[in-house]
Amino acid sequence: MATLKAVRGTRDLLPPDTALWNHVEATARAVFARYGFGEIRTPIFEETTLFARGVGEETDIVSKEMYTWEDRGRAEGSSGQSLTLRPENTAGVVRAYIEHKMADTGMLQKLFYIGPQFRRERPQRGRYRQFWQIGAEVLGPAWSGSDSALRDAEVLEMLATFLNELGVKGWKLELNSVGSSTDRPRYLEALREALAPVKHLLCEDNQRRAETNPLRVLDSKEPGDQEIINNLPKIADYLDDASKEHFAQVLAALDACGVPYAINPRLVRGLDYYTRTTFEFTVPDGSGLGTQNALLGGGRYDGLSEMLGGPKAPGIGFAIGEDRLILTLQAQAGEATAKKLDAFIAPMGVAQNALALALAQELRRAGLSVEVGDGSFRLKKSFDAADKLARQMIILGEDEAASGVLTVKNFNKGEQTKVARAELVEALRG
Ligand code: HAM
After folding, report:
1. How many CA atoms lie within 13 A of 307 on its CB side?
2. 270: nearest Cα among 292, 290, 299, 291
3. Counting atoms of ligand 1 from 1, which one is nearest the CA of 271?
4. 315 close to 110: Cβ distance less than 8 angstroms
5. Which ligand 1 atom lies nearest to the CA of residue 320?
C-alpha cells in the first residue's frame, strides 16, 4: 500500500520546533497587548467574492493561487456557493468589522490574528501552500483617527519592537507610498503611457498586466523585465499634496522613535487594496529564507471597507509570515538546543511503576516538568533516556521506596546525591 504523506506544500510542525512557535506567538501576544490590540479569529473559509473584491481579481493571489470550490446547495435544487480557503486575513477582518457594525462604537479598532492561510504557490523554502500569519489591523471611522500617519508609525514601531524582542538580527524596513484613490489614477495613466512603447518586450504575464493592472508590473520579479521596470515613472512624482504630507508625517514619526527605514519606490505590494503607506520587512541573505526574504508585509487600505460594501473605514495593518520568522530565528541562532525536563524518574522493576507515577504526579503538581521511565528498562536504558530528556534522574528502587530517601543524579554537574522525599522538590529546582 502506498504510504500517505502530508500534501505538497503543507507540513507537520513537531516538537521541539513547536516550542519556538509557541514562544514567537506568546511574544506577539505580549507585545501587541502593550499597544492595545485584542485578538480576532475569523473563519478559515469565506465566500470567494470577498477575496475577488477585496484582494483584487487581477492579483496573482486571486487569479491563480486560491483554493476555491463550489459548495453543495443546502437543499436539492438550490444552487451552491463558491467558497475559498482564505489566502490572507485582512479581507476577513474587514468583513467582520462591517458585519458586526464595529464602526458604531466610534472607536478605533486594534485587532490581531494568528492563523493559517492558503495559497497554491510553487512550494520552496519559506514558501508553502498552507502557511501561518501573525497579523494586525487598525481601522475605524475617520473621526477615530484611523487615517492618521501616527497609526502607520505606531504599527511600524511595534513591529520593530517585536522583532527586536525576539532577537531577529539585521532586519530592514522598506517603505513607500502608493498614493490615494485620487492620485493613483494619474499615476496609472502615466504608467500605461510609459509601458505602451515597450510592452512587447515584456514577458507574457507582464504584457497582460500592463493592460489590466499596470501597478502589478512594478512588483514583478521576472529577471528579463527588470531594466524596463526600473525606468518606469516613480509614484512619488505623482502623489498629491495630501498624500505627500501624510507620508512625510509617517517618516517624521519614525525618525522621532528611532526606527530605521529605507524608501523603496517600487514597493507597490501584490494586493489591490493598498493606498498610501506600503511596507515590507526583509532579512539579510543567509538568514535561512533563500530568495523568500520578505518576513512580513503590510500597508494602508483606506478604501477597502467601502469596496466590500461597508462604511468608510480607513485602516492599516500587516501580516508576518510566521514560517519565515521561525526559519530566520533558527538560522540566526544556529542549532537550537531543546529545553530539557527537570527530572526523569527511573523505577527499578515494574513493582515500582505505580509509585513512580505517584511521585511524578506530586512533582508535576509542584510545577516541575517530569518524565517517567518504566520498571522493565535496564538501568543503562533508563540512564540513556534520562540523559537525553532531562537535567536530572531520580532512581526509585525497593530501598528508596522503603527508606523515603531517593538517589538523584544531576547530569550537568555529573554528581549523585541522596535526597529525602520531603526535600525533593527544592533539590530538583536547584
Ligand atoms: P502578503 O505580503 O501577501 O500580505 O503576506 C504577508 C507575509 O506572509 C509575507 O511577507 C510572507 O512573509 C508571508 N507569506 C505570504 N505567502 C506565503 C507563503 N506561500 N508561504 C509562506 N509565507 C508566506 C498580506 O497577506 C496582507 N494581508 C498583509 C496586510 C495586513 N496588509 C494590511 N494588513
Report:
1. 24
2. 299
3. 3
4. no
5. 7
Q: Among candidates 279, 286, 249, which has minimal Cα distance to 265?
A: 279
With 0-12 / 13-18 / 19 or more C-beta atoms within 10 angstroms meaning exposed / middle / buried, residue 11 is: middle
Task: Please state whether beta strands 405-410 and 294-300 pair in parallel, antiparallel, or not at all (unpaired).
Answer: unpaired
What one-letter code names the amino acid at 156? L
Backbone angles phi, psi at 393, to 5 degrees: -125, 135
- How far apart are the CA of 231 and the centre of ligand 1, in A? 27
Q: Whose CA is nearest to atom 2 of ligand 1?
A: 297
Q: Name the maximum alpha-carbon separation found in the chain.
A: 93
pTM over 0.70: yes
Q: What is the dihedral of CA 223, 323, 270, 217, to 10 degrees?
A: 0
Q: What is the pLDDT of residue 336?
A: 53
> Could you tell me if the CB of 275 is within 6 A of ligand 1?
no
Look at residue 175 and tell me whether its pLDDT is greater than 60: yes
299 close to ligand 1 (CB < 6 Angstrom): yes
Residue type, 349: G
Whose CA is closest to 353, among 333, 338, 374? 374
56 versus 75: the higher-pLDDT residue is: 56
Report the alpha-carbon distance of residue 162 to residue 93 in Å, rounded. 22
Q: What's the gap in Å between 320 CA and the centre of ligand 1?
A: 6
The verdict on the CB of residue 157 being under 6 Å from ligand 1 is no
CATH topology of domain 341-429: Rossmann fold (3.40.50)
Residues 329, 332, 336, CA angle at the centre, nearest 5°? Answer: 70
Confidence of residue 79 (pLDDT cuts 50, 70, 90): confident
Q: What is the mean pLDDT of residues 97-120?
A: 97
**Residue nearest atom 21 of ligand 1, based on CA coordinates:** 127
Torsional class of 48: left (φ above 0), alpha (ψ -120 to 50), beta (otherwise): alpha
Query: What residue ranges do the domains of the chain occupy?
Result: 17-178+260-333, 341-429
* C-alpha cell read off for 92: 476577513
Cβ atoms of 239 and 178 within 8 Å: the answer is no
> 9 and 129 in contact (C-beta within 8 Å)?
yes
> How many C-beta atoms lie closer than 10 Å to residue 19's C-beta?
12
Q: Which of 234, 232, 226, 238 is nearest to 197 (CA)?
A: 232
Best residue for ligand 1 mutational test, from 117, 281, 300 (most atoms within 8 Å of Cβ): 117
- Length of the chain (residues): 430
Q: What is the CATH number of domain 17-178+260-333?
A: 3.30.930.10
